[in-house]
Request: fold
Amino acid sequence: MHEFYNPVRVTYISVDEYLDFLEQKSSGKTVGLFLNQSLVRKLSLDHLVNKLIDVSKHLIWINEINANPTVKDIISALCKINQTKLDIIIAIGGGSVIDIAKSVKALMRSQMTQYVTDDEIVNLILNKKYLNNNSDTPLIATPTTTGTGSEMTKWCTIWDPLNNKKFSIEAKWLYPDTACLVPELTCSLPIPLTISTSLDAFTQACEAFWAKSSSPYVKELALTAICLIKTHLPLTISNPNNFRNRSKLLIASSISGLAFSQTRTTACHSISYPLTNRYKIPHGIAVTLSLSRVLQYNLKAVPEISEIIDLFSGVDALNAWLYKVTYPHFGLSLSSYGVPETEIPSIVEDCYTKGRMDNNPIYIKQEDLMEILNTIY
Ligand SMILES: [Fe+2]
Reply:
């Protein structure tokens, strides 16, 4: 038996409707707003922020959030919130912004000292002490990239670059209350970010398709996302201002998120973590580097993967598509990111993230992984 459950309400709306929606949700409330100042400038969202300041009872604005957020980013947000009881959390941005908002939602009710330390936060995360918080503060997540699918999942990722690690925070009450899909907000996304985030969604959909816990229902969602990205990513690259294609990519990303919200990711994501942590390879590209090799490796365990291959008329055509959509912005080899060949054995050791590599339909032995990494070197 396969079950499917995802409680996120998805709204597809215009910018004007979105402003009205946020105004209505924030009226008279204490609001935590997670939105980078740089995005406000880029998308001319001053009127949105001003409107929220006007209508809310109190607004706390977390306006500087780094890509690949760390424990320090959580602490900085928690300090700004300073134990204020938030009535609603609004996150507008890429996966990192939505993930920090989720982390704060998870941790804000935890007992911590006035000057909370990195170790205290890591302890709360690793020992899952946040699970008792049962935070019911509604979270409205609005993705402005077309990739991570964080608006559809109950987990978030926090990075620890010093120790080459990453942490996951997960709770059934961490699903956003509402995911707002506002295509206009993605229309000026630079092409390299459009490519890397769309490929994250693409890879996540492939992984949802072949994950141990996949199902016939998830597979169809995954194929839909893959098809949409296959068609509309190249069209967006050649015509970045086309609203329809941007809109299709945003929908594809959310469908990919819906699919992998049921399955989690697999080997490609597991392999990507040391690549991003150590060599700062953008997440969406780091997961794509091993995609074709992992797909072929998994084919013997999940013959239906041929449905993905058939969409491209063969593995060679899939590889050609990947090269076409990444060139000239990104290389698809480890060497193009300055990864020393001598470090491949130690990268292999760091590739085995619990809950990801063991979610791959076949266990990838270290010697096979070494071969995969050598092939993509
Ligand atoms: Fe991802």
